[in-house]
Amino acid sequence: MVRVRPFVSEDRAFVLSLAPRLAIGMQPWRNRDLWLATVEGWLTESIQQHGQKTMVWIAENEAGERVGFATVSQSTHFTGQPQAYIGELATAETAEGHGVGSALVNACEQWARAQGYTILSLSTGAANARALQFYKHLGFQDEDVTLTKLI
Fold first, then answer.
1. Confidence band, pLDDT 50/70/90 cuts, at residue 146
2. Residues 135, 126 contacting (CB under 8 angstroms)
3. What is the model's pTM?
């Protein structure tokens, strides 16, 4: 059983502790230190905006231990169409495959619907096969592809 609740200030260290999990699928040509610093900046910004234009969700197991988090915020597609965007979603390694990610996505979907959005989008690394399979299983579809060439 997974319980999802809104972020409280005591969750800050936990959320930041999962930042390295957001480097799964990072391409080898990217600088890991820069990647992690950027992710920590995103997380800090989401925490600061929590309850305003961003919602941070915390997942707990039956024992009340924190096992994952997700952030969802107001966004606008480049066409101008409003949408909700899952910025980050990470689970503790020990929680993989136990419904934590699904519970967090569900909380993000409910928040998005309550805000009036009909589209929920996210991005993940092309090499993060597990995440790609997980999101497709939940009904997410490919929309954009970023291509990179090393020169």
1. confident
2. no
3. 0.93
Kindly report the CA angle at 147 between 145 and 150, in degrees rounded to 5? Answer: 165
Distance between CA atoms of residues 85 and 29, nearest Å: 26
pLDDT by residue (tens digit) across 15-60?
999 999 999 989 999 999 999 999 999 999 999 999 998 999 999 9
pLDDT at 70 over 90: yes
Structure tokens given for 100: 């934590």
- With contact defined as beta carbons under 8 Å apart, do 89 and 72 qualify? no
d(CA 148, CA 121): 21
**Separation CA 57–CA 15 (nearest Å):** 10
CA R_g for the chain: 15
For residue 16, the SS3 value is helix
Helices (H), the chain: 12-17, 32-49, 100-114, 129-137
